[in-house]
Amino acid sequence: MLTAGGLVKCHGRRRALDGFDLTVEPGEIVGLIGHNGAGKTTFVEIVAGLLQPDAGRIRIGPYDALTEGRAARRLIGMAPQELALYGSVTVRENLRLFAGLTGLRGRRREAGIARVLEELQLSTLADRPVGVLSGGQRRRVQAATAMVGSPPLLLLDEPTAGADPETRSALLAAVRARAEKGVAVVYTTHYLPELVDLDATLALARAGRVITRGTQEELTRHLPGELRVTFADPAEPELRMPTSDPGADLAALLASGRTPASVDIHRPSLDDLYHFLETAELEGTQAHDAAA
Ligand SMILES: Nc1ncnc2c1ncn2[C@@H]1O[C@H](COP(=O)(O)OP(=O)(O)OP(=O)(O)O)[C@@H](O)[C@H]1O
Hints:
Layout: E1 2-11, E2 14-24, E3 29-33, H1 40-47, E4 55-60, E5 63-64, H2 69-73, E6 76-79, H3 91-101, H4 106-119, H5 135-147, E7 153-157, H6 165-180, E8 184-188, H7 193-197, E9 201-206, E10 209-214, H8 216-220, E11 225-231, E12 239-243, H9 246-255, E13 260-266, H10 270-279
Parallel strand pairs: 3-8, 3-9, 6-7, 7-8
Antiparallel strand pairs: 1-2, 1-4, 4-5, 9-10, 11-12, 11-13
Helix pairs in contact: 3-4, 3-5
Bound molecules: adenosine-5'-triphosphate.
């Protein structure tokens, strides 16, 4: 649904994107992760047509997004990181406006609005001005503006930043439901457990490019887990050892004659993966800043 290749974007002498590649299939949720400044928002803004790249290619569905931008943009729903809503008019009016931009009119527009209000648990707030809503409620409205036209590609840039648990779970459920219907989703977040809930594939951005891409299973499979053992003898401290073969390591421990009181096998989590990748020595990071 989305294929971006070789994207470059410079701000002055700084390269915000430096050969950024990403492909997203219909029905796939890609968790786009990486440190502040890695280029995630720049990528999303370029795909949405809000910024022009200095080089690279983008296809959205059948369209070349750089030469057929107007047609490509009709396939996109975007929730930007900085909220962009009309505060003085109601939630419903905001949704009418965004639905209109995607070409929806009349009864189909009202049906789309009713659906998204329900999905994001906004029905009771529909006739209130956005300006009187809480931060979390506004986040949900922003996500609703992205979804209201039922676009086949959703770009959600930290849609749950500052959200309470209720807002978060409503949003995640809505995103999952859309993906199950074949919508492709780019989802940026700094909150990795969300990506487990979404069963997202992962793209780790660093210094303006995607350095790691795959499913959660593919990327965590080769990481060591951790064996955590406490002992019957209270004088013995808890043992924590990295392990790729917990069964064999536990058998070796028992054979040594020590008596465990508890055994816990910690499987590698996304936090472990992120930490592993971010701390690994990776080539090319010094070349990020063209001024360097
Ligand atoms: N308008 C701009 N002018 C100058 N530099 C910019 C501009 N926009 C972004 N940058 C720089 O481009 C780089 C990428 O920024 P971007 O916002 O895409 O990162 P990000 O991965 O989305 O970060 P975050 O996790 O903080 O949202 C950063 O070094 C940032 O300082």
